[in-house]
Amino acid sequence: MLLKSRAVFSLGLRMCSTHVTTGPVIEPGRPSSDMSEFRKAFAKAKNIAIITGAGVSAESGVPTFRGEHEKWRKWHSQDLASPEAFSRNPSRVWEFYHYRRELVLDKKPSAVHLAIAECEARLKKQGRSVVVITQCQDDLHRQAGSKHVLKIHGSLLETRCMSCGQVTVNKQSPICAALKSKGAPGANVPDAEIPVDKLPRCEERDCHGLLRPNVVFFGETLDSHILTNVEKEMEICDLCLVVGTSSIVYPAAMFGPRVAARGVPVAEFNMNTTPKTEYFIAFLEAEVRPTSICHSERRTQRGT
Ligand SMILES: [Zn+2]
After folding, report:
1. What residue stretches are annotated with the Deacetylase sirtuin-type domain (predicted)?
2. Is 161 annotated as contributing to ligand binding?
């Protein structure tokens, strides 16, 4: 039992700031693992912002392409996910994205995605709101049932026309005939060198422009409309959860600290290993079903 309690705490629940009006105030910036403080803040919160990152997708088996050794063929994602790379070699970049699209289309939401979606549905009935602000480019939050999702880095399952700008949801597999069975990630796989007119093309009347994945490439600015919405959510939230992100990619890395600077509780969860994830899920489920006897018991057992 003690070990379990420790495991929960070692999960990395960090209150960057726990300025809770009825509870003790913990110095901003000083992490705490006081679950009761988090629980109080959760019970009172009307507008909860949940910031998610690659760790959440990794729970469903989606590779992050962030690690030093996580290469596709000879390249890191930053070598391929750039406007320059796309303009230089659209075939290679499309092969990379085709590979990632096929991976994502094959995955199911994890228990973390489901718990977050359930949290939104449950709190909505109580007149409370949950927004998911995600860096993930898959569709797993929506598949899990989350309604209010802001995807700050775009979507693998959308295309944008380079000529007319049309953005379209596209879940076709393969996205075009020429990419069928292409995109294998092995280091020695040769480029398919698909002619540009055989790559995904716009279906708008008289356009036929080259499509690109509707994701934010390295070096590109984020969608201003989405950023404006994120700003609003950051202003109104009274509790912020940062889940499965190493908080190194800007501007998302600043969201939590900005909210904490307003004196709003920010809880950070990282889930790099499966055992920890198990505890995270248990914890979040306990929080989203506070009246459940089953989960109350589980909480008691964990000594939290
Ligand atoms: Zn077009």
Report:
1. 28-304
2. yes
Q: What whole-number distance in Å separates Cα of residue 86 and Cα of residue 219?
A: 13
Name the burial class of residue 167, with classes exposed (0-12), middle (13-18) and buried (19+) by CB atoms within 10 angstroms of its CB: middle
Domain positions in the chain are 46-264
pLDDT tens for residues 31-65?
A: 455 667 777 888 899 999 999 998 889 889 998 77
Query: Which of residues 90 and 295 earns the better pLDDT score?
Result: 90
| Residue 24 to residue 186: CA distance in whole angstroms | 54
Q: What is the pLDDT of residues 11-25, one digit of tens each?
A: 233 333 332 322 333
Tell me the CA–centroid distance for residue 163 and ligand 1, in Å.
5
Classify residue 35 by burial, with Cβ atoms within 10 Å: 0-12, 13-18, 19+: buried
* Active-site annotation holds for 148: no
Residues found in the chain: 304
The CATH number given to 46-264 is 3.30.1600.10
SS (H, E, C) 6-37: HHHHHCCCEECCECCCCCCCECCCCCCCCHHH
